[in-house]
Input
Amino acid sequence: MESLKGRKVLVTGADGFIPSYVCETLVQKGARVVALVRRNSSSVLKNIGHLKKDLEVVWADIQDSSTMIRLTKGVEIIYHLAANSHVAYSILQPVESFTIQAVGTINILEAARINDVGRIIHAGSAEEYGETRDTQIAEDFPLLPRSPYAAGKVAADRLMYSYWCSYGTPVVMSRFFGIYGPRQSAEKAIPKFIFQCMDGQDISMYGDGSQTRDFMYGTDAGEAYAELGVANNVVGGVVNIGTGKKYPILKVAEDIVRLMGAKVKIAKDMNLKPGEASHLVANPTLLQKTLGWKPVVSWEDGLSRTIDFFTKNRARYADLAGRV
Ligand SMILES: NC(=O)c1ccc[n+]([C@@H]2O[C@H](COP(=O)([O-])OP(=O)(O)OC[C@H]3O[C@@H](n4cnc5c(N)ncnc54)[C@H](O)[C@@H]3O)[C@@H](O)[C@H]2O)c1
Output
């Protein structure tokens, strides 16, 4: 495997939760990181402020094609993670969710083709597989997206593949399973359960808790995804990013209650959220073989670090208290 040291890389959506770990890993490995952050009126960085001196931050929207062509000149690797990452939001705003993924991704592919970028790694999702059997999902499982978000991910993933087939553009289609850790959006299940325990509220769970997910800690996800930029034998292919371990959501809630010593009940709603898949657990064989690597942070350790982060940073999320 080649080294990332000294390579000029572009990270889209860089101020997001997973992208912040990708930026940390790339900086640690000595890459020259251009961090593309969506324009906003305040210009405040949420998740990569601590890395500011090691990054070149550019404010841009991936839907702007001419800007993407300008920003990818001289770039060797693009880590493409920008998206509206919320399934529930995509059900409320399907056109916006889908358009960012489809238009943004084709803009990045065109820019990469024009500027001869060496590799593009797309951040796809396990949601692309949609409804699955209760078994580990390998990369060749059918894609049956169940939400506009997931359909947008499939569109982006297949656009990547089409550029590989049509122009030989060097792409990698990665698919993240559940990623968790400090800095995750407060309305996702793990932070939501932590806030409910902190506030002494009963945990509100969608479904009966038997739905299963695969959870990888943020630093491990950042490491795996960054390495796909230089790994051998992955160009033109799909790679799942997951641990292969299966966690029923009920166990996730019980572990949080136990670790926090909270005196709260777990209320089961019995209705899954619209668009939600029942089981999403990765077959991680290809990832582990490709990188010669396994995740290093255990579930208990990662969960404890996450609880610690949200406990210490409660004030930063105070305005979300009513929504979680
Ligand atoms: N968190 C997970 O478990 C998970 C699982 C599967 C896939 N993913 C994918 O990984 C990526 C990162 O996920 P995350 O959980 O860190 O999400 P996130 O929402 O924290 O990060 C995504 C970032 O993309 C930015 N963005 C959105 N639209 C943009 C645009 N038009 N131009 C530029 N930037 C834009 C957002 O501002 C945000 O900072 C996303 O593509 C997401 O769909 C995440």
Observations:
- The pocket of nicotinamide-adenine-dinucleotide is lined by residues 12-13, 15-19, 38, 61-63, 81-85, 100, 104, 123, 125, 176, 178-179, 185 (CB under 6 Å).
- The first helix runs from residue 17 to 28.
- The chain is about 35% helix and 15% strand.
